[in-house]
Amino acid sequence: MARILPESSRLGQSAKMDNKMLTRTFLIFGLLTLACAANAQSGNTHNELLDLFADWREFESPPLLDGAPDYTVATFARRQDDYLALRERLEAFDIDEWPVPEQVDWHLVRAEMNGYDFNLRVLQPWARDPAFYKTVWTYRSDVPAHEGPIHHALVELWTYEFPLSQPEAERLTRELAVIPPLMAQAKQNLTGNARDLWIAGIRDIRRQSTDLETLRSNLGEEAGEALASAIAASIAATDELAEWLEAESATKTGPSGIGKENYTWYQQNVHLVPLTWEDEVRLLERELARAWSSLKLEEQRNRNLPPMVAASNPEEYDALADDAVKRIMKFLRDKDIVTVADYMEPALRVRMGSFIPEEQRHFFWIAAHYDPAPLYTHFWHWFELARMDTEPHPSPVRQGALLYNIFDSRNEGTATGVEEMFMHAGLYDDKPRSRELVWIMLAQRAARGLGSLYAHANQMSMEEAGRIHIEWTPRGWMKTEPDLVLFEQHLYLRQPGYGTAYVTGKFLLEQTLADYGKLVEDRGEAFELREFFDRLNAIDSIPISLARWELTGLEDMVPGEAN
Asked: Which SS3 state, helix, strand or coil, does residue 133 take?
């Protein structure tokens, strides 16, 4: 039985309880205040993440040594504590209650930091990869940044208009000044033993000298004394590095691949592709078989149709190219594939190409001289770059190119994916032979990516990987392409995951389309492909695993903790 206290005792007890509750309330309030202060200090808002992002990007660009970016061992060691401090700030964020797009931004910053860490621990392009020091680029890449590891002081000749104005001549003179000290630094930094990377990289450095000689010849007397001197010094320094690389090449005997475990870690934690090395082998083998079998079925279906005839002169090619552009743009509009922006057709027309004599055509232009449309659908790239130039994403994290080629599954995967998607949606209903070209291009991409996987596992040399690339491309269209094979396999060895990104990204895009379509159907709504691509475009050039999260709410492909 409960003891009944006198009224006075109950009042006294109540007062004591009120005091305890008051004390407890103050204690809880104090703890909450401290917690809020701690959260504010550690960073708990998207704006604070953007502050961290700005600090990170400033840190990621290295200090200068003799006017060139400093990639020396001592400097990396000296800066490690600063990197760890940035990493600690990032991990202190509590993002669980943030809107999904803001959480995605956090994952992007984290992926970039993982990329820096991986480069420092494993890839070390400044020590293993002579092509890392290539500085002069004559063309814009069709993805947000140049493919592969690049340094921080490139000379982008394609950004100049010739003849040069005086301010532009001065700018070019300043930019070229980085080459002599960087080439000298390369000879100190390149201590690696990756034979394939070393040998193939010599070509890139010699190409730089050739490009500079072409620049000097084209400028002639218009260069001016300062610019002419800068070009001459750059050529001399480049040639000296190439000669040194040649002399050292005989001592290079080691593997160039990073190994299966490192490859898997990189894909999952940097490029945010939720696959292992083994997963990718199975996927690319499947896509290679599917492309070949589908090609043979197309050939069977088309066996009574006239064969395709390649353009044999500039007039024929120009007519084919113009027709292909018109067909694609009409298809995108009339079939409600995507909202067509004003910048899209001009961006495509700039990349139409021109007639190439038969004996000089490499793989993609062999196909284009039959029908440019399959290749032009892959030029979705240029739509995306035009969008990034004219309609930048509101978040600073996504406004430019993600570092370390983190964009590859999105940009290469989408460009490859739409080749087949548009075919299925009816682009070639009136040109059935063109469907054969789609399957041929997919087979080539699967074959070259498969070879790159074995090269990274150090189960094949770069040359052996190239043989898969050549032998499994239909119709022998790669058998006369030693330069293209070398370029592609070298790039994929330099940049893990890039060779497979065309197919892995395509797979992830198809998975995303499937998930998105099912969610729409489950809601009893009509599926609209235009809405899918418009939303994908608005999310911008980020890994498809994260884009899928924004599109569908499904986060099962989002990476967990790095380990």
From this structure: helix
